[in-house]
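fwd from M.: "can u put these together and see what the complex looks like"

so here's what she sent:
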Amino acid sequence: MLAHEFMRNAYLAGSFVALACGLVGYFVVLRGQVFAGDALSHVAFTGALAAAAAGVDIRLGLFVATLAVAMGMGLLGERARPDDVVIGSVFAWVLGLGALFLSIFTNGSSGENGTAAVRVLFGSILGLSAADARLAAAIALLAGLVLLAIARPLLLGSLDPDVARGLGLPLRALGSASSRCWQWSRQRQPKPSGLCCCSAC
Amino acid sequence: MDVHLSWNIADDIRQLLQFPFMVNALRAGTIVAVVSGVVGWFMVLRRQTFAGHTLSVVAFPGAAGATLAGLPLAAGYFGACGIAALALSRVSRPGRESLSSESAAIGTVQAFGLGLGFLFVTLYSGQLSDLQSLLFGTFLGITAAQVQTLFWVALAALAILAAIGRPLLFASVDGAVARASGVPTGGLALVFLLLLGLAVAATAEITGALLVFALLVTPPATAQQITIRPGPGLVLSVALALAVTWLGLGIAYFSPYPVGFWVTSLSFGLYVTVRLVRGILARRYRHDPLGAPA
């Protein structure tokens, strides 16, 4: 199995992404932010399609879109914890934008129209180049490290926000920092494993 | 097809209605807007947005599986949403309200559903362009027969909701008190999830799995920003959903961009506007003039 290079690349990227997801996902579940994470992965879809429609690198779209929305959700929500209706409304619109970009992209470039959307949605872990895999691993590692650095205060902030605030912890900053980590690991993920498998981690 | 927008509104509407596909789309959109306006209002009230989203996402593997098995799409939508609603009602028990574990369980159901969808699409490996319509809907390819099915489904959903409406409202607003006074909250939650599944499946057939949400969440959320009273809130929610659907369809007809984009943008724009206005009013009067009695 490991004789093929594409399998080695897939394992390299997959392992590190799984590492980052396991770490970040633990806090996501602890903080009850699964829905937010899910919404971010859909945002990544729109971002990627926007980049594809504009003809720039898909990764740029993923990165910019998830970062912007994660910051926005962190700012809007109470203590950087947006409630589910806000998340739902925001990302219903973001998906609508995705439909728009998809139609622009489809009309603009005849040929492999549906395939791009499928690739973004479900990932293409077996089509990674060695450089892609290394980049994915590096970013996943970075996200994991940032998370470990803020892990203790974040844990306290997640479990008992009132006590943590009493101790003077910067909750809002922590909240958005954690969502930033989350979406770092996330926006790497679409490439390897696809958006939809994120929540599985 | 000579389509151009003019200042003559009557002429615009005549142009809009000159093709049967447009008439069918408007009919289907109207039915879907009414159902999702009502069901969505309860969903927003019960804070089950994530569950609703999961149901709508699960509609996708349902449709893909039905395509693979050669069944009618509707069977896939309704089957998948029904099963998912049952599964969700198992994980989200009222009374054991640990938010994080519940949302994690919902997320797990959803991830599994999407994985299945991917499997079905890969196995089918037929036309991938079908996938786009599964995800983003075929608003303009609706047949008269579909409209009829949709009508009966919608009627059934609304009838059930009318029957359980009062206890459901009670259970949604104050679950503990409702349980104490003998309202079967667990059964109600299950029935409501099934209803939600029904509404989502009906909507997904028209708007696609991903855009159900635009009608199910945003208009009710806007309505609940404006009033918290159930009667006016429900009416307003339906009215907003209808307005958004009709306008979205109309604008999409005259523009090169898809229906889904216009519907979601209009409803999101409304939501943001209402929230902003409400925020300004609240700041000016210091208490909240539109919300709960201060």
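replying to her w this: The mean pLDDT of chain B is 78.
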